[in-house]
Amino acid sequence: MKNSKLTIVGGGSTYTLGILMSLIEESNQFPLSQIILYDTDESRQEKIGKASKILLKEHYSSLEKFDYTTNQAVAFKDADIIFVQIRTGGLLMREKDEQIPIKHGVVGQETCGPGGMAYGLRSISDMIQLVKDIRSINKDAWILNYTNPAAIVGLALDKAFPDDYKLLNICDMPIAIMKTYADILNEDIWNLDADYFGLNHFGWFTKIKNKTGHDYTSELKNYIRNNEFNPTDKLIANDPSWQSTFKQAKQMLEDFDEYLPNTYLQYYLYPNELSRKENINNTRARQVINGRERNVFEDCDTIIKQNNTNNIDISGDIHGIYMIRIAASLIYHLREKFIVMTRNNGIIPNLPKDALVEIPALIGKYGIEPLQVGEIPTFYKGLLENQYAYEKLVVEAYFENDYNKLLQALVLNRTVVDTNKAKGILKDLSDANREYWPQFLE
Ligand code: NAD
Ligand code: G6P
Ligand code: MN
């Protein structure tokens, strides 16, 4: 089979260099002939593009073509596969998404709670337009979307493009948690076999085995109850915010010992404690602006100046490798098992059919072949139905320009609940987002 042509949309993202390093590390399993970076922000794209060119020249000798562009025709025309990682409004709007709820005593988070709702309403327009633009130029490329908040974006895309089986929504959190499991167990991560159910950033591992069938679930639970649970993937291992997030798993497991939780459940299960921990002047967005973003762009300056990557500390990470392994499984019809998002349709029979569930599936040339989960117990069903109702109302509010549905959504969200609080937050978020969702201005 011929080598593939890849385009990365959001080429100016803080994740691009890591993805390129991951592509280099995975080049035997997923060989490429072409990589094109595309972004709407010319200056971000140029900096990452110039550095990428040097990096690829050094480390990817079999690559025939590399380019970076703000031209969609150039970016989309020949691609076999398109990774998407855009951020409408940038990190400065993320900071507002996080600060406004905190002002009202509510968790301020990129994808959970009111911040996620605000980000979702911004992302949906751009993502629908982007998929239309891609499909007007290229009908066949696989589109692998990382853009957040993936739960809401994915649901909106499912509504807008219900038959496009070549459009997949993916999250790196389950695999990042599995990376820690693998390191605890001294197993190769790709030798682990996970059973999982939920919505994006709202789910549980029900079983962790290895591929020869050894069940590690109890061992992992015991480990987490009795030891420090830390992130181990390079991208997040040394980040204090991620370290404190992983630590919360112990509390969750002590309180609810049935399944192994996704780290994002902390915001829904302990909203008061979590909101008290937040610092409005140093939310996660600010940490990323002063950390990952600054480091990536400084690295680019250095690479461009010295015209090589000597002494630059970049490597592949599970975020990139996950996307690449899924891409390889699609293109080579490997039917390997990955946790992805897909329309429920009875996979979990006691949840709504149209929910976008996150579950294990086989990935091959027909796209996603979901594996049956079965009915789930009442506690989880209740939490998920509530969260799905919130997500669905946000998406309906977007398509119907219905402010009242946004209010209903926030009242349902476990991080908010109180109607007066919800009204205040919604008003402030609408003001802050007038450029992005003017339809909701009263
Ligand atoms: P970032 O702001 O550094 O990068 C996003 C890039 O997208 C920017 O260069 C921006 O100019 C570009 N962009 C914005 N709108 C665009 C459009 N319409 N078309 C093309 N390019 C556009 O953000 P980041 O922190 O690197 O994150 C990128 C995205 O990936 C975010 O949505 C983030 O939430 C998401 N993400 C998702 C997961 C997951 O688990 N699904 C994991 C990590 C990051
Ligand atoms: C995880 C999640 C992503 C999220 C990211 C935020 O990878 O799966 O959905 O975007 O964390 O990380 P950050 O370091 O930007 O807070
Ligand atoms: Mn995610």
From TrEMBL:
<dbReference type="GO" id="GO:0016616">
    <property type="term" value="F:oxidoreductase activity, acting on the CH-OH group of donors, NAD or NADP as acceptor"/>
</dbReference>
<keyword id="KW-0479">Metal-binding</keyword>
<dbReference type="GO" id="GO:0046872">
    <property type="term" value="F:metal ion binding"/>
</dbReference>
<feature type="site" description="Increases basicity of active site Tyr">
    <location>
        <position position="110"/>
    </location>
</feature>
<feature type="binding site">
    <location>
        <position position="201"/>
    </location>
    <ligand>
        <name>Mn(2+)</name>
    </ligand>
</feature>
<keyword id="KW-0533">Nickel</keyword>
<keyword id="KW-0378">Hydrolase</keyword>
<dbReference type="InterPro" id="IPR001088">
    <property type="entry name" value="Glyco_hydro_4"/>
</dbReference>
<keyword id="KW-0326">Glycosidase</keyword>
<dbReference type="GO" id="GO:0005975">
    <property type="term" value="P:carbohydrate metabolic process"/>
</dbReference>
<dbReference type="Pfam" id="PF11975">
    <property type="entry name" value="Glyco_hydro_4C"/>
</dbReference>
<feature type="binding site">
    <location>
        <position position="284"/>
    </location>
    <ligand>
        <name>substrate</name>
    </ligand>
</feature>
<keyword id="KW-0170">Cobalt</keyword>
<dbReference type="InterPro" id="IPR015955">
    <property type="entry name" value="Lactate_DH/Glyco_Ohase_4_C"/>
</dbReference>
<feature type="binding site">
    <location>
        <position position="148"/>
    </location>
    <ligand>
        <name>substrate</name>
    </ligand>
</feature>
<feature type="binding site">
    <location>
        <position position="171"/>
    </location>
    <ligand>
        <name>Mn(2+)</name>
    </ligand>
</feature>
<dbReference type="InterPro" id="IPR022616">
    <property type="entry name" value="Glyco_hydro_4_C"/>
</dbReference>
<dbReference type="GO" id="GO:0004553">
    <property type="term" value="F:hydrolase activity, hydrolyzing O-glycosyl compounds"/>
</dbReference>
<dbReference type="Pfam" id="PF02056">
    <property type="entry name" value="Glyco_hydro_4"/>
</dbReference>
<keyword id="KW-0408">Iron</keyword>
<feature type="active site" description="Proton donor">
    <location>
        <position position="172"/>
    </location>
</feature>
<keyword id="KW-0464">Manganese</keyword>
<keyword id="KW-0520">NAD</keyword>
<feature type="binding site">
    <location>
        <position position="94"/>
    </location>
    <ligand>
        <name>substrate</name>
    </ligand>
</feature>
<protein>
    <submittedName>
        <fullName>6-phospho-alpha-glucosidase</fullName>
    </submittedName>
</protein>
<dbReference type="InterPro" id="IPR036291">
    <property type="entry name" value="NAD(P)-bd_dom_sf"/>
</dbReference>
<comment type="similarity">
    <text>Belongs to the glycosyl hydrolase 4 family.</text>
</comment>
<feature type="active site" description="Proton acceptor">
    <location>
        <position position="264"/>
    </location>
</feature>
<feature type="domain" description="Glycosyl hydrolase family 4 C-terminal">
    <location>
        <begin position="196"/>
        <end position="416"/>
    </location>
</feature>
